[in-house]
Amino acid sequence: MANESRPCPCDIGDRFDYGGRGQEVQVGHIKAYVCKAPASTDKAVVVIHDVFGWQLPNTRYMADMLAANGYIAICPDFFVGQEAWKPSNDWASFDDWLKTRNAGKIDKEVDVIVKYLSEQCGAKKIGVIGFCWGGAAVQHLMLKNPHLKTGVSLYGVIRFFEGRSNLLHPTFFIFAEKDDYIPLEQVTLLEQKLKQNCKVDYEVKIYPGQTHGFVHRKREDINPQDKPYIEEGRKDMINWLNKYL
């Protein structure tokens, strides 16, 4: 069962020692990390960070991976200048910290980013992916944002948007079998609700033996037993985006 005293998933995992191939830009009121594909493209992906914020090297690594696969990738600071969560913070303060960082209140920022991608980067088809806090944000956006074509939610915290499943766009949900923060009962319930209410393509996939954050917080070089699942999760994410963008 989820550990209620640590309401969020978050052990930072293996922090990647990674500098990034992209650059930081100012987009309206938001800072963002942008990495462009080697060849020109009209397809873009918004990357929504976890509680550790937009500067986490692991998340930039994922953005660069998307760029290498032919997308303009942008990871904005959805905390808009507020401090990201630090592993050294006191977990008892997490709920208060979260109150000013609501995964369901990022619409204004998303609109600014979509406008930038369309007008400055020539993007015509835009998708979104997100991890943990950002995975919940993806579900929120797939329920209401008309401009995004598809989404991939990676271990998005289900309890943020329980009970809402009438998605507007094809959405892929990645979960870990041994996630201490997202119990499998919640995943089963989400699947049932999607089956009842969802009119668009969706997929819910549980990766055996994996823990929260495995796709972006585990380094495959030091977790050989997990490597096949880390690679599979990343490949599945790219394949989903390729299919719907």
Automatic annotation (TrEMBL):
It is found in: Cytoplasm, Cytosol. Keywords: Cytoplasm. GO terms for cellular component: cytosol. Residues 30-245 form the Dienelactone hydrolase domain. It comes from the Eukaryota. Gene3D superfamilies: alpha/beta hydrolase. InterPro entries: AB_hydrolase_fold, CMBL, Dienelactn_hydro. Its main location: cytoplasm. GO terms for molecular function: hydrolase activity. Belongs to the dienelactone hydrolase family. This is Carboxymethylenebutenolidase homolog. It comes from Aptenodytes patagonicus.
